[in-house]
TrEMBL record:
Record InterPro entries: Biofilm_reg_signaling, EAL_dom, EAL_sf, GGDEF_dom, Nucleotide_cyclase, PAC, PAS, PAS-assoc_C
One Pfam family named in its UniProt record: PAS
Record-annotated PAC domain positions: 203-255
Domain PAS: 129-199
Listed GO biological process terms: regulation of DNA-templated transcription
Protein name according to UniProt: EAL domain-containing protein
Domain (EAL) ranges: 428-690
The GGDEF domain, residue ranges: 285-419
SUPFAM superfamilies membership: EAL domain-like (SSF141868), Nucleotide cyclase (SSF55073), PYP-like sensor domain (PAS domain) (SSF55785)
Length: 692
């Protein structure tokens, strides 16, 4: 930069001026929150350091582009740092331009004042003032031109001739009003007319001019009115600063800030600008949006590497771009393997379906990457509707939810947004985010459903069923939040809490009834999720909870669903075997729904089969279906031959209970006996059992 500065400082002195600016740029790159003002201040400081030569800004930005991330961004993601570096360059250019403009305007003001002081010289031909004006006129770095009120160019300086690439004779042969340009702002010539009529003293605009070589010259133009000694308008004075290079640089930085570096597609920033514009369109306008996520892209990245994944994304981007060629259509990359296509107009209900179909068809042909033919599919969520009803964030959220609904349905398809499905997904998300603190706030509680012996009707224990007392949604059953807890991993601490509460309740029951009811001590059944089953602390947690509560292991029965044990290996069964050896009963829950091999029962450490209610629903009425009777009878016979007790769920009628008793089932639970409720309800049933 030193050769293109206008400083009187030596090279070491100039370096000392630049070092603090370099440190500020490094901090701006690495600071957590991007501060554009800091980069703008650095750009302004360059002007203060006399780096005002036309090449100074270009060399500065080239230096920042080449070395800032290389030397200062070693710890951060390269793509994010390059994006921030581009924003820093943009802000530096803006700060540089503003400072240079302010300095230029100050020079222009000084020149204008000098011109005003010299207007008497033009009229009176005073030699001394003419000499001073000529020195300023010829030596200025900005272009200066003087014309009469008819627009005839009278005088121009060398800087202006160099800007236009014209000779003085050619320039003076032109008229000011010949310099129109297609990109002139609407007010440009209105301001000119007002100045010529003497209604304003000056005006400032950004204006383009056509050069003889066909290129555009962009300038900051200030035009001032010069009056004669009597105050009458006499001449017009034009001051021009060449901003062409700075404008091209800003356009380049703008492009880099709004387009994806890998695919060249518009990025999230650009897309949101377009979407916001589409949603703010007038009455009768509609929009359609396709949110695409590639199916199985992570597998390709993990197996073939990120370079192959990038080439795949480039090819997908090209295909998507070929699908959005109609007016009002665009495609953008939001990040990763997520793309979005937008269409606008008055008939987007039909157009967005056609757009989604084109995208799906474009993905059919295999993509060749490193000699491999890769088949790529995608899931698309479609949102369509009238403009002006939803914000961009709401539209994109709905599209994202719909896309995941398509992916959950198997992928390689598109789904239309459904407000009810969106509401359910938003509710699920709200519950998911509230789960971690709900346990700390004590929002969970347990209800107990009695287990009744079918032979004598005695209460043998109860199943613990967790509930969530949500502040907004009220009491939620386990089907609403257990899958979410399993997905987030919260099921482990939640399951531990349920086990602690249930074992403590079992101790209270045993203390109340001594050795138990007439049929023996009461037992508590606690459900065990697949996540808990694979947790390494399962056995130790259970032992600790039983020891702290002072309860024998035979007071506890852990229920594991049949589906969780299908194909289970010895490592998975080892914790259950250890618990069973301690005296904890293991129940195989929902038996009959997992299509497991009955022969596998012999190797499972279970002592109880809980027959799924689907086998016994037909027994609620008399007579029962003979086929169901045979099935249940066979299962009971098999279980008893393996020394397994049989518990039946969902008993709702006396006829059903009697039929199950005849078939040999051991215990049952269901609304016929009692609905899940507080532990006091079990006390009442057990008391009736104990007193006969």
């Amino acid at each position: 930069m030193f050769p293109v500065t206008s400083t009187s400082a030596t090279r070491p002195e100039f370096e000392e001026q630049l070092l603090p600016l370099a440190r500020r740029l490094s901090q701006a790159l690495l600071t957590r929150t991007f501060d554009a003002d800091e980069a703008k201040a650095v750009g302004a400081a360059l002007v203060d350091a006399h780096c005002t030569d036309p090449d100074a800004l270009t060399r500065t930005l080239d230096c920042v582009d080449a070395y800032l991330v290389l030397y200062c961004g070693e710890d951060g993601p390269a793509e994010d740092l390059r994006a921030r570096a581009a924003r820093i360059q943009h802000a530096m250019a803006a700060g540089f331009a503003r400072a240079l403009r302010e300095r230029t305007l100050a020079e222009q003001e000084a020149i204008a004042q000098a011109a005003l002081r010299a207007q008497g010289v033009v009229a009176q031909a005073l030699h001394a003032t003419e000499a001073r004006f000529r020195a300023v006129f010829e030596g200025a770095a900005i272009g200066i031109g003087i014309a009469d009120l008819e627009g005839n160019i009278l005088q121009v300086n060398g800087a202006l001739l160099r800007m236009f690439g014209l000779s003085e004779q050619t320039m003076q042969a032109r008229n000011v009003q010949d310099w129109t340009h297609p990109e002139d702002a609407p007010q440009t010539w209105r301001l000119y007319d007002e100045l010529i009529r003497g209604e304003r003293e000056h005006y400032h605009v950004e204006k383009a001019f056509n050069r003889p070589d066909g290129t555009a010259l962009w300038t900051n133009l200030t035009v001032s009115l010069l009056r004669d000694p009597d105050g009458n308008p006499q001449y017009q004075l034009a001051l021009m600063e060449d901003t062409t290079e700075r404008r091209l640089l800003n356009l380049r930085l703008r492009y880099e800030a709004t387009h994806d570096a890998l695919t060249g597609l518009p990025n999230r920033t650009f897309f949101f600008e377009r979407l916001e514009k589409a949603l703010g369109a007038g009455q009768g306008q509609r929009f359609g949006l396709c949110y695409l996520d590639l199916d199985g892209f992570k597998t390709i990245n993990d197996s073939l590497g990120h370079a192959a994944g990038d080439r795949l994304l480039v090819e997908v981007a090209d295909r998507l771009q070929s699908c959005t060629t109609a007016p009002g259509e665009m495609v953008a990359r939001l990040g990763g393997d997520e793309f979005v296509a937008l269409t606008t107009g008055t008939d987007t209900e039909r157009e967005v379906d056609e757009l989604a179909a084109r995208i799906m068809n474009a993905m059919v042909a295999p993509i060749s990457v490193d000699g491999r033919e890769l088949t790529v599919r995608g899931s698309i969520g479609i949102v369509e509707g009238p403009a002006g009803e939803r914000s961009p964030a709401e539209v994109l959220r709905s599209a994202d939810i719909t896309m995941y609904r398509a992916k959950s349905a198997g992928g390689n398809r598109f789904e239309l947004a459904d407000p009810e499905a969106d509401a359910r997904a938003i509710t699920r998300h709200g519950l998911t985010t509230a789960l971690p603190t709900a346990l700390d706030r004590g929002e969970f509680f347990i209800e107990y459903q009695p287990l009744v012996h079918l032979g004598d009707g005695s209460v043998r224990g109860a199943e613990a069923l967790v509930r969530w007392l949500h502040p907004q949604h009220g009491v939620l059953g386990p089907d609403r939040f257990i899958p979410l807890a399993e997905h987030t991993g919260l099921i482990v601490p939640l399951g531990r809490w349920v086990l602690e509460q249930s074992v403590r309740q079992a101790r209270e029951w045993r203390e109340r009834y001594g050795d138990g009811t007439a049929a023996g001590p009461l037992r508590i059944n606690v459900n065990l999720s697949p996540c808990q089953l694979t947790h390494p602390g399962l056995v130790q947690d259970t032992v600790d909870i039983l020891e702290r509560a002072g309860v024998d292991p035979d007071a506890l029965c852990l229920e594991v669903t049949e589906s969780a044990l299908i194909g289970a290996d010895d490592d998975l069964l080892k914790p259950l075997r250890r618990l069973a050896e301690m005296g904890v009963d293991i129940a195989l829950d929902d038996f009959g729904t997992g299509y497991s091999n009955l022969a596998n029962l012999r190797r499972l450490p279970v002592s109880i089969l809980k027959l799924d209610r689907s086998f016994t629903q037909s027994m609620q009425q008399f007579p029962a279906d003979p086929v169901d009777l045979k099935i249940v009878e066979g299962i009971v016979s098999l279980a008893h031959s393996l020394d397994l007790a049989v518990t039946v769920e969902g008993v709702e009628t006396g006829a059903q209970a009697e039929q199950l008793r005849i078939l040999g089932c051991d215990t049952a639970q269901g609304w016929y006996y009692a609905r899940p409720g507080p532990p006091e309800r079990l006390h009442e049933l057990a008391l009736v059992d104990a007193t006969g």
